[in-house]
Design brief:
This protein is globular. Helix 2 crosses helix 6 (249-265). The chain has helices at 2-5, 17-29, 53-56, 72-80, 95-98, 249-265, and strands at residues 10-13, 33-37, 58-61, 64-68, 84-88, 102-105, 122-126, 131-132, 138-140, 151-152, 155-156, 175-177, 182-186, 193-194, 199-203, 206-209, 214-219, 225-226, 231-236. The longest helix has 17 residues, at 249-265. A hairpin with a 2-residue loop joins strand 3 and strand 4. The strands form four sheets. A nine-stranded mixed beta sheet has the order 3-4-5-2-1-6-7-9-10, with helices on both faces. The protein has a four-stranded antiparallel beta sheet with strand order 12-19-17-14, with no helix packed on it. The protein contains six helices and 19 strands. Helices cover 19% and strands 28% of the residues. The mean pLDDT is 95. By secondary structure, it is of the alpha/beta class.
Length: 266
């Protein structure tokens, strides 16, 4: 089967934690996968985001290694070496030369950032902002709950509630948001155990403190510019440090749904 899937290139728009879960599953299934990202990605869960290789040049998640690429020759060489290329291509122009069999919009911007149903023979979109049958062949539900991972062949995913999923009994309390627009200055690191009230970072000198006890599961890269209200960090009340470097249950669920959709539509 891997030899067969090798004939079907996949472009995934976005390299954050959910997009990485999708890329990881499709890559391990045998699809040649490439991720497109913006120049300075602002992913929170950096330790499980292939987009991190834009800064690190090479970055591994659960046994799969991503490598930053700048040319078509580098992409082919990375694939040949059994690794996953990541490129800076915010408009996904590579689709016009790579001719993917599958395109997955995993930006999770809660809106359509330019993906069209004719971008590839199979187009799969994650979350709200897309209409199945119009913008994509299928939309995957990303809202936690009974329908998480459901394939929608018509209509749209559930609208964004603005309320994070419950982990360890906490929702909004576990998420850190920027108190202003400006540059982030990190005081803590991913994987660090913290107590309620501990300083995690600051934006323009305004402190951002943890509201709960737990482990810093995610934190936007030091020195990046953020906007007021942006999600910039994530405290995991379960206190399990290993969770910082492993794909989440939500990510695995959505990734399985994308693989299902790919097999159905191919």
């Amino acid at each position: 089967m891997k030899k067969k899937f090798a004939d079907y290139p996949v472009i995934i728009r976005g390299g954050g934690d959910i997009a990485t879960a999708v890329a990881h599953k499709l890559f391990r299934a045998g699809f040649p996968v490439i991720i497109t990202e913006i120049e300075q990605p602002t992913m929170v869960r950096r330790m499980v985001s292939f987009a991190n290789c834009i800064n690190e040049k090479e970055f591994s998640v659960e046994g799969v290694t991503s490598v930053f690429a700048e040319t078509s020759e580098e992409i082919q060489r990375i694939w040949k070496n059994g690794k996953l290329p990541v490129i800076i291509d915010s408009d996904c122009k590579i689709k016009d030369t790579l001719y993917p069999a599958i395109l997955v919009d995993a930006i999770l911007a809660k809106k359509n950032c330019g993906t069209r149903k004719d971008d590839a023979p199979v187009v799969i979109a994650l979350g709200p902002g897309f209409t199945a049958g119009k913008d994509a062949d299928v939309v995957v539900e990303t809202n936690r709950g009974h329908d998480l991972g459901k394939l929608l062949f018509e209509g749209e995913a559930a609208p964004d509630t603005g309320i994070p999923g419950t982990i360890g009994g906490f929702t909004t309390e576990r998420v850190l948001r920027s108190p202003s627009s400006g540059m982030i200055h990190n005081e803590a690191e991913i994987g660090m155990t913290v107590k309620r009230g501990d300083l995690i970072c600051s934006v323009n000198g305004q402190p951002v403190n943890s509201q709960i006890d737990g482990v810093v599961r995610g934190l936007i890269r030091h020195g990046l510019k953020v906007r007021y209200g942006d999600k910039i960090g994530d405290i995991d009340p379960r206190g399990e440090i290993q969770f910082c470097r492993s794909i989440s249950d939500k990510g695995r669920n959505i990734a399985g749904a994308v693989l299902e959709a790919a097999l159905m539509l191919l």
